[in-house]
Design a protein that fits this description.
Blueprint (H helix, E strand, L loop, with lengths): L2 H8 L7 E4 L5 H10 L8 E5 L20 E9 L11 H15 L4 E4 L3 E4 L2 E13 L2 E12 L18 H5 L5 H16 L5 H9 L7 E5 L6 E8 L5 E4 L5 E4 L3 E4 L4
Parallel strand pairs: 1-2
Antiparallel strand pairs: 2-3, 3-7, 4-5, 5-6, 6-7, 8-9, 8-12, 9-10, 10-11
Helix pairs in contact: 1-5, 3-5, 3-6
The protein binds adenosine-5'-diphosphate (ADP).
Length: about 260
């Protein structure tokens, strides 16, 4: 992967500018710094790196992006009439786009709410959305995506709390990283224009992992919220049904299957 090959593959999409790095700390940090400069970065500007040395997940967790095998990119979305009222759907926009690109390759993805993409119950991609505000007005947001493309991008199991896989492991052949990136961005541009629709929530909900199963969600405390995973609220929160058949809404947290269910 290099800047020329990327530009060629991405030329059919209406993107902003591109910054490519052989190695970088974090593509999200670069995108946030770029967007903050005089003149900033246009809507749909993209940072891509072959390697991240300080890749970030949520809550200061680390995201591994070894050289030559993974895809790490951050996309800058400027605030707009469509985005502002649908801000809470942004993680879904990214997750749905990654999932659709996997489906196009013949795979069967699922979204482990809110921000992970699974193949065969193992994590293949993670998403980190960060927002920038001017006072209480949204200025822009950055969608960071890390995907394990080739087998060698999968971190050693002892570094992970959750099993991981790669597109190559699941497909049996090595996909082209630029093509994967292009198909995710194409899906994202498609769905961004439809973020406010019911069709968007339905498409996102249809890809959710563990639907109809007993799950536990942890959000900052040791006490999980447990229940059957029903689906999504219009704002992208998770809807569970507890053992008293009462509906519970979970806005933030980590969801996993209940081991004893
Ligand atoms: P979570 O999966 O808990 O929501 P994040 O999406 O923020 O957390 O991702 C960070 C976590 O993902 C790390 O704590 C690590 O366990 C795991 N991880 C880091 N890099 C990779 C990778 N390349 N593939 C799969 N899992 C990873």
């Amino acid at each position: 992967m290099n800047e020329t090959s990327l530009k060629k593959v991405l030329s059919k999409l209406k993107l902003g500018s591109l910054r490519y790095f052989d190695s970088i700390g974090s593509t999200n940090d670069e995108a946030l710094a770029w967007a903050a400069t005089e003149g900033g970065a246009a809507d749909l500007s993209l940072v891509v790196a072959d390697e991240q040395t300080q890749g970030r997940g949520r809550l200061n967790r680390k995201w591994f992006t070894p050289k030559g095998s993974a895809l790490a990119f951050s996309l800058i979305l400027r605030s707009s009439e469509t985005l502002r009222p649908n801000l809470s759907r942004t993680v879904g926009l990214a997750a749905l786009s990654v999932a659709e690109s996997c489906s196009k390759n013949g795979l069967t993805p699922s979204i482990k709410w809110p921000n992970d993409i699974l193949l065969n119950g193992k994590k293949v991609a993670g998403i980190l959305v960060e927002t920038v505000w001017s006072g209480d007005e949204l200025d822009l947001l950055v969608i960071g995506v890390g995907i394990n493309v080739l087998k060698s991008s999968v971190p050693p199991a002892d570094l992970l709390q959750f099993p991981a896989t790669s597109l190559e492991d699941e497909l049996g052949t090595p996909p082209n990283r630029e093509e994967v990136l292009s198909s995710i961005l194409e899906a994202l541009i498609h769905w961004r224009a439809r973020m406010g629709t019911d069709e968007f929530i339905k498409a996102w909900e249809n890809q959710l992992a563990f639907r109809g199963q007993q799950v536990q969600t942890f959000a900052g405390t040791d006490v999980p919220v447990v229940g059957e995973l029903l689906g999504l609220e219009p704002d992208g929160s998770l809807r569970l049904l507890d053992k008293h058949r009462k509906s519970i809404v979970v806005r933030f947290g980590d969801v996993s299957l209940r081991p004893d269910a």
